Every structure is written in structure tokens, then in C-alpha cells.
Amino acid sequence: MKSFYKYIAATILILIMNTGCPAEPKLTKSIVFELGGESGKSDSSSVIISDITKVDKTIAIIKERLHSYGIANKIERNTETNDYTLWLPEKIIDNAVKNLISTTGKIELWETWDISSQELPSPQDSVYRYIMTPRYNASFFLVNKGEMAQARQLLMSYAAEKQWPQNIKYVWGKKPAYGKGDMYELYMLRSMHPVQTPVITNEHIKKAFSEQSYGHWSIEIELNATGSSRFAKATRENIGKALAIVIDNKVYSAPTVQSAIEGGRLQIAGNFTKAEVDEYASILMYEALPLSVTIKE
């Protein structure tokens, strides 16, 4: 009889354990990708990978992003083809996964130049007046999509001729101006130092998460102590001016500073969906990818 009760007790324990520990999802869906050279380099696809540390770090960051987004995964290296297979549960949205594994995720906060400032004299040549539409009391020009390359080349020539300061960094807006049409914003970023140095980078981020307010989704970022100090200084010194939030060399937002911000919290607002802010929160929580990722069809 005692053995019978022991059997019943063991059976109940097994059932409780099985109920409390759901089975791992089956990873049957696959995406193949390859690693290139350093992220952000124009010739990254042709660089031969020899730095194993960067390879391991890139793979580790990809796995962390996916886990943060709630996606179980496994990554295997294909030694014959020198690429990687990412295994996922079957019911996973492809676009979200592709963004999570291929977005470099390099975030920067920059001070900006005020175009109407006396520090930036407006060139008077006809080419400038034709292709550039300066937005006074703002940090950007409006440029037609078909003239973007010409506009950038023109501005670079002004810097080369020393008509403008040397520490100007030109960066395009992520989306068309006002969310539609063929006009794009070309921002003029400035550094806290003589060399091109942003106020905030990935190393200053403590936490990133999505948040909804008044029906609009945003990406909220909490900064560490160093980042909070740098952010507070930048906001104190730029009241009435814009600070540009740049992700992977595109301006996502450039809010005008109304007052000094001491709390160490940064918001990226825009016309985002919940899916977009969830993806970017998972991406920005971690370091930028050291190596570029190309998804193979």
C-alpha cells in the first residue's frame, strides 16, 4: 500500500512540474544571414571577417535583442557557406525579426546649428537658393528628393572652402518632411567639442522601453549617471534650440529644448506604431552591432 501511495505522489508531482514548466517552443522556422565588416562602413559587405571577438559579440547582441522581444531562438553557424541560420518558432512575424537582427542600432544625440544664426552665413550663389529651402529658427533645410546628392555636395564644398565651421555633420531625416511627399529634411549637427562628438551614445543608455501617451507611442530611454550629466548640460546650453536624435545615421526626431532636463530621461517621439517602438526598444537596450548583418533570400 505504501508503494502505491508513493506512486500516486510521484505521479502528481510530475503533473505539477509539467504544468508549471511549459514546454520550450519548437524552433522550426529559419532565417539565413551573413556577417560583413564593421557596421556603418560603406564597404562593409566586402570586408573579410577575421575578428572573432566582434563576430561573437554580434551574435550575442542579436540573441539578447530577440530574447528581450520575447522570441525564443537558436543560432547555428554553417561552416561550409560561412553564414548563419537563425531558428525561430513558426508563428513569428518575419519583418520584426529581420529588423531586430539587421538594424545596427547606433543611437546618438547631437546639438544642432541654427541656420538663421550669424555663425552660419547664407551663401548667395544661385545653386544654393535653387535647391535649398532653409527653415529659419530651425536646424534643417528642406530638399527635394531628386536633389539630395547635389545638396549634400554643395554644403560639403562650403565647409571645405571654410565658409562654414568644420565640425558640421550633415544628416538626413528618416522620413519625408511632415510624413509625406518628396521633400526631405537635411539637418546640420554640431559637436560639443571641436571634433565631431555626439552628446549621447549607446554607452550612456541604462534602459529603453515603449510607452503610450495620449494615443501616441514613443520610445523612452533612461540614461546612466554619465549620460544624465551630459544630457542635462546639453539641454541647459541649448534652450530654444533643437537636439537631434540620430539612429543609424538618420534623424528620427529633433525636438526643441524648452528647459533644462535633469532627470536623465530621453523620449523619441514620432509617428510610430506599437510594433515599431517595441522593436527599437529591444534594439536600443543593447550595444550597436559591431558587424553588419545581411539577410539572405
From TrEMBL:
Protein name in UniProt: Preprotein translocase subunit SecD
Gene Ontology BP annotations: protein transport
Ranges where the SecDF P1 head subdomain domain occurs: 196-290
Keywords recorded for this protein, A-Z: Cell membrane, Membrane, Protein transport, Signal, Translocation, Transmembrane, Transmembrane helix, Transport
Xref: Pfam families: SecDF_P1_head (PF22599)
Organism: Dysgonomonas hofstadii
Gene Ontology CC entries for this record: plasma membrane
Alphabetical list of InterPro entries matching this protein: SecD/SecF_arch_bac, SecDF_P1_head
Signal peptide: 1-23
